[in-house]
UniProtKB/TrEMBL annotation:
GO biological process annotation, one example: protein transport
Transmembrane regions: 35-58, 104-127, 139-156, 229-247, 267-289
Keyword Oxidoreductase: no
Keywords: Cell membrane, Membrane, Peptide transport, Protein transport, Transmembrane, Transmembrane helix, Transport
Name the record gives this protein: ABC transporter permease
A Pfam match: OppC_N
Membrane topology: Multi-pass membrane protein
GO cellular component: plasma membrane
InterPro entries, sorted: BP-dependent_transpt_permease (IPR050366), MetI-like (IPR000515), MetI-like_sf (IPR035906), OppC_N (IPR025966)
Residue ranges constituting the ABC transmembrane type-1 domain according to the UniProt record: 100-289
Principal location: membrane
Subcellular localization(s) per the UniProt record: Cell membrane
């Protein structure tokens, strides 16, 4: 018979480790049962592999750095050029593959900077309250009052076109969403019993924020970052499409479509394959984010 003392004893390191393993197995089982989640994971893995191995996978890597061959100008898809060629005779498949690396670092920087700025501000606003929360949230709402892409467009127009300025502008308008999300989560977490217990034994505010508030905010942050990766890539491609992002001959998907639109509809392959790359990448990150939300948010599983 189990005694009350045995029931209340703390778990050993081995027991905690086994509990974590069972929890991750449950997560993997739930994730694997969802076709859309597995499709999203597959698309994201494919995107990451293209970004990591692009220089070795591209059949004509020299075509991604400005080389041209006018004899192959605007050739349709063939055995030698699976995606066809562009107006300079460059292989579109090679440029799409190398463009994945550009899209990856663009998405990582935009979402990373947005989270680095927004998460601490959201935690501080939710935990401190009072005038501190009022100031942070009013500034956040000021940014949210203007569409992010329109504000980024104005910033890039002031700084000048280029992929660096494009990423900088989008990073500066990406953080308000994290502030709103984390502030709402912090407001609920700080009233939990374990936070009150930490305060009662004299725990300092930085310790509470680091060990209690932030870990309990990680689930929605991870879900939002996974979805924001696709949206950041799409936003950067949108600025590239109107000529304010990456400049030719950089192999960036949005800039490729911008040039290709003048060759529609006769040379349809020029815009089709970069557009398909954007579509599949954004779809993959969105489906992956939905799958992560389903396993990390218990409320979504109950619906």
């Amino acid at each position: 018979m189990t005694t009350p003392v045995e029931l209340s004893r703390p778990l050993t390191f081995r027991e905690r480790h086994e509990s974590k393993i069972r929890q991750w197995r449950l997560y993997a089982h739930m994730f694997g049962k969802s076709f859309s989640s597995m499709l999203g994971l597959g698309l994201v893995v494919l995107f990451l592999l293209l970004a990591a191995l692009g220089p070795w996978l591209a059949p004509y890597p020299e075509d991604t750095v400005g080389a041209f061959n006018m004899a192959n100008k605007l050739m349709g898809p063939s055995a030698g050029h699976w995606f066809g060629t562009d107006e300079m005779g460059s292989d579109i498949l090679s440029r799409v593959i190398i463009g994945a690396r550009t899209s990856l670092w663009v998405g990582l920087i935009i979402t990373g900077v947005g989270a680095i700025i927004g998460v601490p501000l959201g935690i501080i606003a939710g935990y401190r309250g009072g005038w501190v929360r009022a100031v942070i949230m009013r500034i956040t709402e000021l940014f949210l009052a203007v569409p992010g892409l329109a504000l980024a467009l104005a910033i890039v127009a002031a700084l000048g076109p280029g992929i660096t300025n494009c990423v900088l502008a989008l990073s500066l308008v990406w953080w308000p969403g994290y502030v709103r999300l984390v502030e709402a989560k912090t407001l609920s977490v700080k009233e939990e019993l374990f936070v009150e217990s930490a305060r009662s034994i004299g725990a300092k505010t930085p310790w509470i924020l680091w060990h209690h508030i932030l870990p309990n905010c990680m689930s929605p942050i991870i879900v939002k970052m996974s979805m924001d990766m696709g949206m950041a890539i799409l936003s950067a491609a949108s600025l590239g499409f109107i000529g304010l992002g990456a400049q030719p001959p950089a192999p960036e998907w949005g800039a490729m479509i911008s040039v290709a639109r003048t060759y529609m509809p006769d040379w349809w392959w020029y815009s089709l394959f970069p557009g398909a790359a954007i579509f599949l990448t954004v779809l993959g990150f969105n489906l992956l984010g939905d799958g992560l939300r389903d396993i990390l948010d218990p409320r979504s599983r109950d619906r």
